[in-house]
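The step that takes the researchers longest sounds almost clerical: writing a folded protein down as plain text. The outcome of that step, for a single protein, is printed below.
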Amino acid sequence: SQSEQQILSSKLECVQSILDGVLAEAKCTESNLVTLLSQKGSGAKTQTQSSLKLLQVETDMLYKNVDSEDLYVTSMLYEREETERAVTGGEVSDLVWKLCLAHSASFETADLFMTLVFELRRLSLEALKALWQRSSFKCRDNWEPLIDALPSCATEACVVLMKEIIASGEVEEDKVEYFFWSFAFIPKPTLGMIKSLATLLKSPGTSQSCFLGVTALLHRFCSAHYSCDGLPAVQSVMRTLGKFLGGNCTVQDSEQFRKMQLVLKAIGNAGLAAASLTPILSSCASLQNNPIEIRLAAIQAFRRIPCSVRVSDLLPASD
């Protein structure tokens, strides 16, 4: 008998039939009894019956033969079947409108956003600029689909457009930071991207995310291109960073101190491209009048410079 204090009583009974070591049939009955404490003898009872029966056993599974030429290894990230159909700026603009009208937490919105990213990749810089003029608006909930999609585009045209948007000051600071951090994740940077972004490092008040995002992109580019430090666009970035160092990283006040630490970290980020700055970095590390934090930052800036530069010969002897 059940206790008078119990509110819910449940019971599940199953009967299974085994034939030749295989489950042939299963029948289950589930009962639930709900009683009310305040009204003795009152309540509700439910009973559910389910049945599972084996209908057929197949010993062999048939697989469709696939031509090995149709198989390839690729990343699953952002993969979508390419089509030959040309995409127009007007079509992409309509897509942005659809995103604004779609429910923000729906599968439709996710699919539309993914489509937007892929179609942005197929637009030229001129088409992207025209699209920006038409579709750089906020939805009713202040969402800006185009702003959020551009960092995932990862084409040279999209990067150049983002650079121009940043330079124009048309978007909020948090979106600018979002743009900068996205540069570090571009899988295949181009020389055109570096050439375009190099000018941002010369702007007054350049942020930490700008220095680190651009130099991370530079490192990824140089990892895929031998002797990248001889390319004019790469040299332009490194000359800009080198000017911040002066001859030996001396600083006069706390603001210069913070900026010097940031630039040294950015140079370390650049890695292979920073080989030309090793003599200056060595001077920064060896100058005893420099703050210890600056000297250590200069040493850490060597972390991605290849051994062929003979880092050990450039570092100072111990005091």
User: Anything to note?
Assistant: Strands lie at 8-19, 22-36, 39-53. The chain has a mean pLDDT of 85.
